[in-house]
Design brief:
By secondary structure, this protein is α/β, with parallel strands linked by helices. The chain has helices at 3-26, 29-39, 48-52, 83-90, 152-165, 239-248, 254-263, 271-283, 285-313, 318-324, 329-342; strands at 60-61, 123-128, 135-143, 182-192, 196-201, 220-228. This is PD-(D/E)XK nuclease family transposase.
């Protein structure tokens, strides 16, 4: 078989494995609970262990399509009314385990970059509010960096809109729009320049008069979490970022990860959890990508410096070189002086 094809298939397999591990790790109920406590007002002040008990069934991981007409596919062979099966029917989690393990499986996976397949939610699940009655629908998405082909906020708006519209005939019928459930689409974006946490929600502006329109203005919510490459130090405001950064890091040693999760977050490390952390560290797609990126930047810089020195030797002034190269005259002068000193 063609070597290029073999390499492409191998790379695709590694990427799929890496992504699957990341989703399984984040899909652990205790990890989801840490996220909810720090991003959803309803759960602020609660202990993650308390929120775990409010998550219904097994959250679905990579099984529920985002596209209209596919999110609510009916499973006509099921009349079982237990909690897990109701959730499975509601969010179309075909072949999802009904076991009571601690892994949550969300609505469906993501944009299938490998084969341009169906767009799916990474993780999606129902969680009870503190009153034990009302429900929310939570979607968690993981991005290894900012996408280049579109703006992440726009995609998150599409997702949260689908989470609202797909409730028709599943969570409410006919014109009972007051039965709509609150939805949160939470996006974890890695390799960002700064640690950040931003929530987007509906707001109102009275252009004329001061009417009091009834309804749930907080019905749909988007949370964007920016995670830097460097793990932040222990600090209350960075608790979530430190946890997620540790969990998904391609730099930290395995034992260091386990120690942070156990001692700082009191997260029980079962065999499945340990296995997925090991797989992620071994695959290390992020390390490979960063190495390629750094090599490319280094080679580009070297070629640029050689070009500048060559032009300078041919008699071009610093100003003329600056007009051609996207660098200031002071930067060019520094490169030239360094080259002269190294001779």
């Amino acid at each position: 078989m063609n070597t290029a094809i073999v390499n492409a298939i191998t790379a695709a397999g590694s990427k799929a494995q890496y992504d699957a591990c990341a989703k399984r790790l984040i899909g652990q109920k205790i990890i989801l609970s840490h996220i909810l406590v720090r991003t959803v007002e309803e759960f602020k002040g609660m202990k993650p262990e308390e929120v775990v008990l409010l998550i219904e069934g097994d959250p679905q991981i990579g099984t529920v399509p985002v596209s209209p007409g596919m999110t609510n596919r009916q499973n006509n062979n099921n009349s079982n009314t237990d909690v897990n099966q109701n959730i499975t029917d509601a969010i179309d989690a075909s072949d999802i385990s009904r076991s009571t393990n601690t892994r949550v499986g969300g609505l469906n996976t993501e944009d299938s970059e490998i084969n341009e397949g169906t767009i799916r939610f990474d993780i999606i699940f129902y969680v009870r509010m503190k009153d034990g009655l009302a429900q929310m629908i939570i979607n968690i998405e993981i991005q290894k960096d900012q996408p280049k082909d579109y703006h992440l906020l726009n995609r998150s708006i599409y997702y949260v809109s689908r989470m609202i519209s797909s409730q028709k005939d599943r969570d409410f019928e006919h014109s009972n729009y007051d039965d709509l459930k609150h939805v949160f689409s939470i996006w974890i974006c890695l390799n960002m320049d700064e640690n950040s946490l931003t929530r987007y929600y509906l707001s109102s502006e009275n252009i004329l008069g001061n009417p009091q329109w009834k309804g749930k203005q907080d019905l749909l919510n988007i949370v964007l979490i920016g995670i830097t490459r460097e793990i932040p130090k222990q600090d209350e405001k960075y608790e979530l970022h430190r946890l997620l950064g540790t969990l998904l890091s391609d730099k930290l040693a395995i034992n260091t990860k386990f120690e942070i999760m156990k001692s700082e977050y009191h997260i029980p490390l079962n065999d499945d959890f340990r296995r997925d952390v090991n797989i992620m560290c071994n695959l290390g797609e992020g390390i490979e990508e960063r190495a390629i990126r750094e090599t490319t930047e280094r080679v580009t810089n070297e070629m640029t410096q050689q070009f500048i020195i060559s032009m300078y030797k041919k008699g071009y002034s610093l100003e003329q070189i600056s007009d051609i190269i996207d660098k200031s005259t002071s930067e060019i002068e520094e490169i030239v002086n360094t080259a002269v000193l190294s001779v």
